[in-house]
Amino acid sequence: MQTLIAEHLTGMHANTPEGHVHAMAIDALRHPSITLWTAWRGPTLCGCGALKQLDASSGEIKSMRTRALFLRQGVGQAVLDTIIGAAHDRGYSQLFLETGSGEAFAAAHALYLRNGFSWCGPFGDYAATDFNVFMTKTIDGA
Question: What is the mean pLDDT of residues 48-77?
Answer without folding.
Answer: 96
